[in-house]
Structures are given as structure tokens and as C-alpha cells.
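DM from R.C. (forwarded with permission)

"hey, sorry to bug you on a friday — could you get me a structure for this? deadline for the figure draft is monday and I only need the backbone to look sensible"
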Amino acid sequence: MHVKILGFNLFAKGGTSRSNINLIKAFVKSGYKVTYYNFKEYNQSDLFNTMINEGLLDDKLEFEQYTSPQDLVNCERLILTRETFFYIARDIKLVDKKVQIIGEIHGPLAYISEEADLATDAIDAFRVSTSKIKEEFKEKYKVNHVFNQYVEASHINLSTEPKNTKRNLLIKARFEDEIKDISYVIKLMNCIVNVKGYKDINLYIKGYGPSEVLYKNLVKYYELTSNVHINKREPLTYIYVSSSPYETLGYSILESIAEGNKAFIYTGKDDVLNDIYKGYNSISFMQKNIEIDCHNLIEFINDKYTKEDREEDVEKLKFEFLERNYADEFLKGATECITDSKEKILNKSISNNKNKNKNESLDKVRDLYAKLKEKPVLNKIMQNDKIFSYAKNKYLNKKVKNEMDMFNQIIPSSNKVFIESFHGNNFSGDPKYIALYIREHFPEKQVYVSSRNSLVDIEIRNCDVTPIRFGSIAYSKLFRECKYVFVNGNTLDKVYKHDDQIFIQTWHGLPLKRMVNDLSDVKERNDQVNAFLPRMQKWDYLLSSSLVNTMLFKSAFLTKNNQNLKILEYGAPRNEYLLNSNEEEKRRIMSKYFFTGVKTKKYILFCPTWRKEKRQTLSSINLQKLLEYLPEDYEIIVKLHPNEAHLRGKYSNLDKRIHCFYNEFVDIQELYLISDSMITDYSSTIFDYAHLNKPIILIQEDNQSYNEKVGFYFDIFELGSISIAHMDERRLAQQLTSFNYINYTKMTNRLLTYDSKGSTKMILDTIFDQK
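My reply, with the result:
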């Protein structure tokens, strides 16, 4: 029998390359003629190195460069080892109906795009890793010709002796945090080393990829440079760690336990690794809960891996991965599930060719333009500004039109929810607490959260919801797919609302300073109204915490212009979080920001609101000087507005008693709970913080000019005992140490009347009940 195999790049390092090498060896060993085709171009040195190093020298084995589907006919079996190759099956069937095509699903089902063409009409059999994945695949793609078999693993070195770590942990993976979540393990090390005090435990991280800078910054941020080692020489004995949200086997896990090491692994959101590795004495499972995992991992490190344990694991490894005729079992599994129906292939092939993504063709034109620019004769013409501008605008306009055509075909799903807080700059406020409630009480709904960068991604993933990059094509597409959209500011103008979508505007606080239609500056007011009104027309619901709140929103946002808008006076989910707070939550917050569960300091929260002009300091108050007049147990937390994140470098390096965290990691509601007093100016933080009855001190250094430019809705000082900050640091220090508790009930009863412990439930019961 002649077997052909198409792979992407056999000569690159990685799990798929290893799997393909093992696959080739298995078929050659069983006596089959094998021709391997490499999709990516390669040179002779690549080929010779691999053949020599891997022992791929056999008369029955040939290597070829893939050029077209015609290469893959004239054989009995064809194995496509990458999902993105599956579309080729239709072209092959047009030439040779007899060849049986087997498609290998290497990646987790969760990572296969919904738009991916798996050519289920042309592929004769699909191989997946486990029986659980098999059933999910059959259900998702409505096919029956699926069999399950682990990838070939004869390359593993099986040791009969157990290895007990000298308190070393190891990760070997591509540095791509969205699919490996190594940042979680770095946070876990923060808990182990800084919170629990196990200074003798070390983590070694080996790999490469786009998230390397992120990991180095996190190690520095958590002060773990002595305990976390990136791309340093790995230890001889270790506990292997894997925190990937999804895996189909995990070669590194298998290789590590085969060598006699233990492994601490996450089962995956789909629980696949539990199905594969349960019953091994060398395996302990991660829960993705920092406190629980910290405790369990330390116990696992201390537990001895005995010879008896190892003997049981060796027998299990032999049975499941080594003592099998892989090639024959593979072909048997494929043959047993192959479908007899192939008549639909030719017709479907034609319709699929017609439905190719228009932007793919457009991008080919763009690439051709770039190549033509390199030609000496055409370079001068292409460099002409007018020609370039014309071509660029033509390309962008056509691309936008194509995207809109694609988006207009999408029907929003009631099981998909889009969340955005502060334009993706962090994950906080009402949208965050709504997302958390949905995740807990509506598990059938998928929650997607807008994110500007990898730091925000980490916070979002820590809450077990899915980040999506702000402003990307995927962002626009997912935005349209979600029936429910929760935001606390303006949405991007380039995202268009579908008639079936429901927009919920939470806003980000009860205003003291005037907004939009109520601004004091006439020109600024007119500019903001003109920009704001079209965005406000998208809203279906607006959340409010009181009649006063509603009155101010109606005035500022000109809500009378949106006759369909409903204002829900149910309170703010972000403040429900404050009302529900307890000591356990405060300990968690202390661990998050200060790497200790014990609060021994008094924290002053310093959070002036932003100014439109870019400034280099938040206030004329000298925080270093202020600390000189405060007792040693007082420290300052500087919370920057998302629009002033550029100041973090300045404030994080002022003094060891001044803390300015990455804005992406900060949820100000959490900082409210652990702070003892707050200094601010005209920020809506005043009203949220008042729920806690802790001292609020207001900076009024530019009150007159701010009032002229922006203006205020009411006199805050008539509603509560709020002190004006002394600009002299010594006197300000006296203010901060003179009181501990102030009753702001009068203010919260009037301005935040409806904030309650049931706010989020009332909001979502109302919104999700809409037909």
C-alpha cells in the first residue's frame, strides 16, 4: 500500500513536527511505501539533517516538495496533518475519487475557527485524540466518519526509575500566552514564593515566541527574578507544569512523565487531559485557583514518588503509548468509520469555490502591489504619492465594504455576550461584575471581553472569560455575533449594530462634573453632542443608581432623542460588589496587589481624575514629602485614570511606600476595599467610595478654572462631611490621621438609592427576558 502524507513543515521544532516524524516512522516500520510532502519550502540541508538525526533512511520512504493537489493522487491512503489543508481534499477527489483521505485534527476543537473549511464532504475519515473529542467533533460538525487514536509516541524515553524533584518546576512551551497561559504559573509562583514564603522553589521556563517580553516583565513585577528563570539551563529533575486551557495530548507532559518526573497539569476547559492522564501516580491536576493550586502544588512537591508508584505508571505508559502497532491500528480505525457517500463532493466543491472570502483575493492584490514595487522599472511609478494614495484608499474602501458584507450575514446569537470596559484598557467596573455574574449564573452563554493588550488578557482569562483584541477584525466580527453588548463608554464607530442586538450602557459612575450636553464650554459642548448622539442612538438600556442619576443622564446624554431607550434604575453591579465584600475577599485583594494576605499597613488611595491636556504630574501635592509627615505604617496607592497610564513610570519609582500598579491589572473597586482613606478631586469615585464610609478628601487646587471649562452639577459639600485637602503636606498628613470613619449615608441614600445586593440579578433578569 502506498501512503502519502502532507505536512506543513517537518523541519521545524514543535509538537506537530514530532507527531509527523513519528507517523512516518510508524508506517515505514509496518512495511508501507510512504511519500511525505512538505507544504513549506525547504532546502537540502534541512532534509539531510532531519533524515540523519531522526533515522529516516529507508528505501520505502521519499520526501517531496508540495506544489499542487495533483501531487497527492495515485495512492491508496492520503493523510492530511493540518486542518488548514482539508480544503485540498475536494480538488484531489475531482482527480481521483478512489484515494481515501484521512484528516488529522491536531489542535483542540476550541481553537478551530467557526469559518474553517474542514471539507467534511470530501474527507473520508477524521482522526482525533480521545473518545470525548470524537463525540464532540461528531456533534459539532454533524459527521460520523471519525475515529480516535493518540498521536504516535514511540520517541519517548521510558525510564523505570522515579525522579524526585529538588523543588524545581519546569515548563517547555511556545511563548504564546493566549494558548499556553504561562502567566498563570508566574502568578502561582508569586503566591508560593512571596505570599507563602517558599523561597527555595524555582520555576524554569523554556521556549520562544511573542509573549517572552510579557513573561520577563511579569517576573520583574512580582519580584521573582531569583526564583523564575527564563531560557536558562533546565534542571535534571523537576515537576513538569502545564497550564494550557486546551491540549489534545501534550507531548511535553508525556515526555516528562516517561522520563520518571512528576507533572502538575491543568485538565483543560474541556477536561481532555483528565481523560488521558487520570490514574497516573506521577500526575496531579491543577484547578486554576491560585490559593488551591498553591496548597496542592506544595503538597505534591513534598510527596515522594515511590518505586511502586513508578512501576504502575510504566506499565500504563507501555500499554497506552508504546506496545501497539500504530500504523495498522490507524488504518483500521480509519477504515471502520469511512463513509460510503461521495456523490455530493463535486457539487459542493463548485459552491465552495464561489464562496471564497473576498478579502483573501483583495489581499492577494495588495501583496502583488508590494512585489511590483520591488521591480526597478515600476518602483518610480509605485512610489508616486498620488498613485499610492489612490491605490491605498481604493484598497481600504473595498476592504471595509467586503467586511460589511460579511458582517451583514451574521445573525447575533443569544448565547454570546460582548463586554467592554474603558475601551479595553482594563477589565473593571460594571461590565466586569456583569460578566462574572453571567459566567456563574448563565453558563450556557459565551462571554467575550474587549482587551487592548496581553496584560488585560491575563486579567480577563483569570476570570474565566475570553479576551478579544480591541479593534481587530475578530473584534468586529465577534461584536456582531453577540446579541448582548455591555459597555461603560462609547463603542467604536466602525462597529455597526444589528437589529437583533441589545446594547446596555452601564456608564462608569454618577457624574459630579458636567458631561456632553451640559458642558460649560460651548464649542466643546457642541463638538461632543454631535459625536455622541449617533452612538447614543444604539443604546437599548441605560443603568442608573437613583432618580438623581437618571436626571443627570437625561440632561447630559439627550436621551429624549432615543425613544426606545429604557433606563433601568436597579443600581450598579460594581457597587453591589462593595456591599457584598467580606474579609476573605480583602485577603485575596491583598495577595493580588501586595503579595500577602495580611493587612498591616494603612493605605491612602490617591486618584485624581484626568485632565484633557497631557500632564506630567497629577497634583502639586508632593507625595514623597507627604510620607515624611505620616507614620511609618502609612503607604500611598496611586490609581491612574486609564487615559493617564503614561505616568506609571513616574509614580511607581517615587518611593518604596508609594505603589502605582499596572492599570491593566487594577480594579479600583478592589482598591476601595483595602484603602483606609481616599484623596481625589472631581471624580465619580467619590460616590462609589462613600458606600464604605471611609474618609474622602478632595483636592480643589484648580476648582475655578475647571468649573469654567467643564462645570459641576451640584455642590458636593452640601451632601456629606467631605474635607478639602490642605495643599501643605504637613497639614494634609494631619487630616489623614485625624479620623477613621465618616457616615456618608445621607449622600448614598440620595445619589445611589438603588445600589443593592441584588442589583445585577435584577438587571440581567430584565435584559435576558427580552424576546
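R.C.: lifesaver. The chain has five domains: 2-154+338-345, 168-305, 357-407, 410-572, 581-751.
me: no worries. The chain is about 40% helix and 15% strand.
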